[in-house]
Amino acid sequence: MSSSTDPSTVVSAGTAMRSAASRWQFWIVLLVIGSVVALLIQLLDTSDTEIYGTENTDLDGYAAVANVLDDHGVNLHRVYSAEAARELLEQEQAASLVVLLREFPPDERFAAELDAEWDAGREVLWISDDPWLLTEVFAAETQTGARIPVGAAGTPEVLESGPRCALPAAEAARSLQAPGVSLRTDSGCFPIGEDGYVLAETSRGVVFTAPEAFTNQHITAEGNAALALGLLGAKEGNDAAPQDLIWYTPSGADSVGDQQWGSPLDYLPEWLWPLVWWLIICAGIGMVAAGRRYGPVVSEPLPVNVPAEEAAVGRGRLYQRANAVPATLQVLRSAHLLRLTKLLRLGRGAAPETVAVAAAHVAGWETSAVRQLLERPGPDGAAPPHAPAMSHRDMVTHAQALAKLESDVRQALRTRRRTE
Amino acid sequence: MLTLRYFWVALGMSGLVVLVPAWLWLWLVVLAAVALVDILACASPRKVRLTRQPTKSTRTGERTTAVTRVENLGARTLRGWVKDGWQPTAGARNVVQWAQIRGHRSTELQVRLEPQRRGELISEHVTIRSLGPLGLAGRQVTHRVPQTLQVLPEFASRKHLPSRLRRLRELDGATAVQLRGAGTEFDSLRDYVRGDDVRSIDWRATARRQDAAGQHLVVRTWRPERDRRVILCLDASRTSAGRIGDEPRLDAGVESSLLLGALAAHAGDRVDFLAFAREVTARASSSERGIFLNVLSMAASKVEPALVEADFAQLPGQITAITTHKSLVVILTAADSPSLQEGLLPVLPALTAKHRVVVASVSNPELIQRAATRETVSEVYAAAAAERAMIEAEAVASELQAMGVEVVQAEPEALPAALADCYIRLKATGKL
């Protein structure tokens, strides 16, 4: 009789696929939901966190100014590389240009080109309060001057546009209140000290060195708002004609292309990266090939199994933790007494003294020593009534002596039986 | 499913990548295409019929072979690996085998097994990994075709059986040895020979047999009782899970049951076996069909220790259900367990009133060893704990003896023989 099985010992491919899908259903759904959520977060989270960003609505953003400019029909074109800025300049011949220097210096070639643009009549505004960047760009003509003085409470002083101011926007604004630095030039607006000006004209354009003034935090102070609108090109009464403003913020993108130091990776052979990819694929194949099991994991229903002497071992540890020297010795004595009673055939319930005497006689030990070993010290026994507390070493000696006594008795009995 | 060969091929193709790195995508497509071709070209592992041949029950440690017929139902030649999913303790030597089966042909998959554990061992499935003609990739499918192997207890104490049987025969008077059976059943009359017990002279028969010489004394011979009941009660509760040496107490109990069961069945007694924890988990009886040793082995092979307290209170009822006559009740349990005081002792009077009760228990040689080791402080404490355990076991044993129970205590290997000797002694002295 053979247990014949029909071919349906295995499910069909489609069913197997469906059952696998249902088994992994939870994880698949989790993965899909997770990626959708991640995508949504990515899409919805458009808030600009860049400092002086034109969409940044935080205290350090320019969103307020940008919104007002937009209402006045100014189109803002934000760019982060000189390349893009150059293209925009070519497209929009009438557009003004703002160069906001914050972390990176502008592309040098582009900065030099701006000279010509400025000469050709394009409005160029440089905004920065970073002395190092300013020096980088305007080292040829000017240097940074004193910082805008700050009052006792931490608020910067209000600056007046000053008598040597030739810019109408500054004149219209009259006053300015914001932290920042100044440029040393011959003429300009908002003077600090003798030769420092916050707004000054150079060969590359107008330079404004207090960018804090246009942030959402400071835009409402004094004439800041008027200055911003005046400088950034919102022409009053001319709403109909849309204006373009190229907002160029130099970034790392400028310096990527023309690294002065070639990367060592550039000098590697051409086949290296394809090979690396190929080897990664090979490693994947190796893992898949080596990791494929022959069918499901086989389980082994193991029976319970406990070391039988575990209770005794645990009790020994309890004795030790409690330093139960008297109890330990008492147990040992009783055990040996019981065995000696049996060995010497003294009958059940023989008194310890009797056993001690008999054992001493058989083993040839001194009776007093054996009695001291076998009898309980204290009021019951005949041993010294006030024996001092026993140390661990004494306990070990005692235990060994007990074992020795028993083995001596056994030995003596064996020889006696042999000789009989 | 990909093979390691595919991995080596892919690794070898990295040379092509170095030579023409611009064609990386082409090489990838080639690599994928090769795998795809192999996967499509291999014989379907689903079109296979697997037939399990029934296995014969075997004993622990003995070798056997499990045979599975693999039939290729498709037209293509099936080339690949076949794995039989035996559980690890089945001790399968060659679970993964190479197979090459032409279309519509079949072959036999023979797996050599060396079971290490008694009980029912199972192979739930057979996995077939079919490779394509290139051996680079293939398909794998698992077929659910359960096969079971009944593994009986080892019965290592089998070696004691012949000597015990001979002693039984001696008791029976069946052999030439002049050892008079001391049972209570009258066997025959025969002439007195020197050395016979004078108390067994049958004076009436002697008077009838007076002949001319008048010298013939006639003695009665007795033989051991037959058709007595032996009931083996194996405790499979939590105490039986305790491991002594290499094996749990239960295994020693199983061995002892097998030896005593076989012996008593040979002696003509009726033997019943029951394993219990909270309830009876296995039964066997010599009144069942078949060779009793096999029946008993089969029943005992399924007994596993359960982590519950034994319910001894059910024993009198169970035994009454088996027989109402006086019988020999052998309780195989752990007599050194303090819980016996609450479990077994209250039940014993009900049993001893009617039956002869033997309590067989494994003693722990490790305790003796631990009690003798006294070099360090920790060892002395451990020795005291071991001594105390032994004193308690001794107390339980003497309490049992005081209730008229025979107590057999021995180390795991010696217990079966000791129990068999106890049985023979009881039989010889007519105490059954």
Give a structural overview.
The complex is a heterodimer of chains A (420) and B (432). Chain A is α/β, with parallel strands linked by helices. Helices cover 45% and strands 10% of the residues of chain A. Chain A is built from 15 helices and eleven strands. Chain A has helices at residues 13-23, 25-44, 63-71, 82-91, 108-119, 131-138, 168-173, 224-231, 252-257, 272-291, 310-321, 325-343, 352-363, 367-374, 392-419; strands at 74-79, 96-100, 124-127, 159-160, 175-176, 183-184, 189-192, 196-202, 205-208, 243-248, 306-307. In chain A, strands 1, 2, 3, 6, 7, 8, 9 and 10 form an eight-stranded mixed beta sheet that branches. In chain A, strands 4-5 form a two-stranded antiparallel ribbon. In chain A, a hairpin with a 3-residue loop joins strand 7 (189-192) and strand 8 (196-202). The longest helix of chain A is centred in the last third of the chain and has 28 residues, at 392-419. Chain A is elongated. Mean pLDDT of chain A is 83; it is low at 1-6 and 379-383. Mean pLDDT of chain B is 88; it is low at 174-181. Chain B is elongated and about 120 Å long. In chain B, helix 5 (249-266) runs antiparallel to helix 6 (292-301). Chain B is of the alpha/beta class and 432 residues long. Chain B has helices spanning 4-19, 24-41, 161-172, 203-208, 249-266, 292-301, 315-322, 340-343, 348-352, 365-372, 377-402, 415-428; strands at residues 48-52, 58-59, 64-72, 78-86, 96-101, 106-113, 119-131, 138-152, 185-191, 218-223, 229-235, 242-244, 247-248, 270-276, 280-285, 327-332, 356-362, 406-410. Helices cover 34% and strands 28% of the residues of chain B. Chain B folds into three domains: 1-152, Immunoglobulin-like (Sandwich), CATH 2.60.40.10; 184-223, no CATH class; 227-428, Rossmann fold (3-Layer(aba) Sandwich), CATH 3.40.50. In chain B, strand 7 and strand 8 form a beta hairpin. The chains are: A alpha/beta (420), B alpha/beta (432). Chains A and B meet through helix 10, strand 11, helix 11, helix 12 and helix 15 of A and helix 1, helix 2, strand 1, strand 4 and strand 7 of B. Strand 11 of chain A pairs parallel with strand 12 (242-244) of chain B, so a sheet runs across the interface. Chain A: Pfam families: DUF4350. Chain A: The chain crosses the membrane at residues 26-44. Chain A: Residues 55-232 form the DUF4350 domain. Chain A: InterPro entries: DUF4350. Chain A: This is DUF4350 domain-containing protein.
